[in-house]
Amino acid sequence: MRIEQELKLGFKDVLFRPKRSTLKSRSQVNLTRDFTFKHSGRQWSGVPVIAANMDSVGSFDMAKALAEHGVMTAIHKHYSVEDWKGFIESNDANVLNNAMVSTGTSEADFQKTKDIMAMSDDLIFICVDIANGYSEHLVDYVMKVREAFPDKVISAGNVVTGDMVEELILAGADIVKVGIGPGSVCTTRVKTGVGYPQLSAIIECGDAAHGLGGMIIGDGGCTCAGDVSKAFGGGADFVMLGGMLAGHEESGGERIEQDGKTFMKFYGMSSQSAMKKHSGGVAKYRAAEGKTVLIPFRGSVHDTINDILGGVRSTCTYVGAAKLKELTKRTTFIRVQEQENNVYGRE
Predict the structure, then answer these.
(1) Is the pTM of this model over 0.85?
(2) Active site (catalytic) residues
(3) What is the pLDDT of residues 205-216, one digit of tens each?
(4) Torsion of CA 319, 205, 42, 240, to 10 degrees
(5) Cis peptide before 30 (omega within 30 of 0)
(6) Do residues 196 and 162 lie in contact, with contact meaning Cβ atoms separated by under 8 Å?
């Protein structure tokens, strides 16, 4: 047993220090980034925010809506091949270029991924997603997927330390997904005692990935636009959002009426609700590691995504970053013990 004494940081532990800027307006800030990925050699241009591959967030409708903003959606893995066929036939290349095909690591998952990817050359992203990215099984699976899809962009995770980021990139991942336990409906830290504060995870994993020419997705922990900016400032190439994009028309969740108000069910993908829906219940050898909550119905996602991106643009003006790419270079974080005056609550 050993103890690391250095304090690790979450988003609530820091604020950006403002810097002189020549920008007159947030409208001058460019959030579009141009990436060339390490293994696939693919190029992609867009706003590097991703809707999470949860079945109450990462829906086909969400992908269509967010593509209008240049934003990506990781489609949840519980759609059938037939569902994908209908989605692909009804969409243009822009939507498909901004959609990630999510998969687990079973043989059935592998075959399903091959069936889906064969339907359109416009699908370029594969998201290999398991809760515990420290399994050697994931490394072997990434190698297998890379061999089968040499020209596709492969994301894999989740991990929170540089050593596994490096191993996954060397195995063939272009992007590594970073985050264990920070999500709003994740209870992994409570059930297992395992986790890593998300900002420190992003800083350390981003450093490891960039040293090898890879990239990372900061996955989880964002509760407001300022947190999204902090993730980018800490070195995340992409930021994945779950709860912030849940509860919308396009989210795909179940609507529930209570006391004349409309709510939507939102749950973690390791929750009892998810396992009951997709696996027939919680297996006897494991515990559920997710919450199920009802959140007020929020209408269309377009206003929400505009609000998030507007907040990130505003961050950039405060620190003098004309492009999102420059934000991490312009970032100085200050340690704080308070974030906001909450006397009237948050909007």
Answers:
(1) yes
(2) 186
(3) 999 999 999 999
(4) -70
(5) no
(6) no
